[in-house]
Amino acid sequence: MAAASPNSDTGCESRSAAVIEFGSHTTRAGFAGKEHPQLIMPSVVGRPRTPEMQATGPENSGADNSEVKGSKSSKTGGESSSEKVKEVYAGDEAMSRRGVLRVKYPVQWGIVTNWDDLEVLWRDVFEKKLACDTEQTPLVLVEGDVGNPKMNREKATQVAFETFNVPAFYLARSPSLVLGATSRTTGLVVDIGGSVVRAVPVYEGHCLTHAAGSYPFGSRYCTDYLLKLLVEKGVALAPYGAKEAGEMIKKFAYIAQDFEQEKATFDVSQVKEYEFPDGQTIPLGPERFQCVEPLFKPNLFGFEVLGLAEHAVNTVERCDPDLRQTLLSNVVLAGGASSLPGLASRFQQEMERELGAQGDPDLRKLHVQVLAPPGGDLLAWKGASLLASSSSFLKMCISLDDYNEYGPTLVYRKCF
């Protein structure tokens, strides 16, 4: 991916706002007006497991450093094992050294749970990776969960101004951004994340938080289910594990339109060979669609929660009756799993079936239109990039002068 055009003074994109999204698993960052983020990296922070490790380096610590010994990270220019270990690492640098570091995710279920670690990640992205003079760079931060606690919204605003001294700041809610990326202002956003699924109705750019819903069943459980299916088949994935299982899903998984019929008619011509990094291969048969079926039937994985369609319909039921048809005509799928082949058509089919089973005749006559844009995992970031490049952006922001006068609670009046 091409790097941003540098400002002669700072190395930061000239006169552009920075756009950062800290997800539970992935961080995306770049500049306003760009179609794609400049940086995509794990949302992780790592510290040495023991003080001795930091003082002497992994080579003399007695720790298992097989993942880093004698190597350098191609993305980050990592240190060799003979060099002194830093106090803290972030993103790819942390993941490449996880054999000798204690790795933590500061964002859980879309909500920041460790602000000290998030500030480490934030500084690494904003100052180091994007090379911004933070005092000269407006900032848009993508807010993943509309149920984000008030104290977290205030804290994000406080850190932006008091730690990074930004001149202007905007905290943008992900569902509104997703719709903006598809040139919509009203619709139902169903975001299938790694750890959580969220259904959020949006009207004229405003999230209807009273009707929004979420449940803790995301795409990573499909990865776990694939591992379980392969073990039951007698396929041992050690030492590959979840990472390779996730790659199998990205490459070969699809959503069955009729699960039972797909099981009955699946034949050998549909088997795919997955090749591991070391050249070994395994066949993937019915597991290709079985592993993602829990999105519609979480009980397959032992979860007593609603499936995607039931969850979405319940969300629409909580909205004003006059809005329901408009929302259902603009259902947008987002998140990494939204690109699964067959997902949009199956989801539309299941939602229409669920509506038809409702006791309310007004619900039964509603129609559904589901859109799954390509690159669903980037939709929120793209929407933020568009927002930050608009002519009205700076008027929407909290300015440094306003922050100094009113404090972090101004976020409730300006960012909604």
Account of the protein in words:
Helices cover 35% and strands 18% of the residues. With 416 residues, the chain is an alpha+beta fold. It has 4 domains: 18-43 and 107-174 and 379-414, 2-Layer Sandwich (Nucleotidyltransferase, domain 5); 45-104, no CATH class; 183-217 and 307-372, ATPase, nucleotide binding domain (Nucleotidyltransferase, domain 5, 2-Layer Sandwich), CATH 3.30.420.40; 222-298, Alpha-Beta Complex (Actin, Chain A, domain 4). It has a 6-stranded mixed β-sheet, sandwiched between helices. β15 and β16 form a beta hairpin. α5 (174-181) crosses α14, α6 packs across α7 (242-252) and α10 crosses α12 (343-356).
* Global Rg: 23 Å
Number of domains: 4
The unreliable regions are: 1-11, 58-81
CATH architecture verdict of the largest domain: 2-Layer Sandwich
> Which strands sit side by side, in order, in the main sheet?
3-2-1-9-10-19
Q: Main traits of this protein?
A:
single chain, Nucleotidyltransferase, domain 5, 19 strands, 35% helix, globular, 6-stranded mixed β-sheet, disordered N terminus
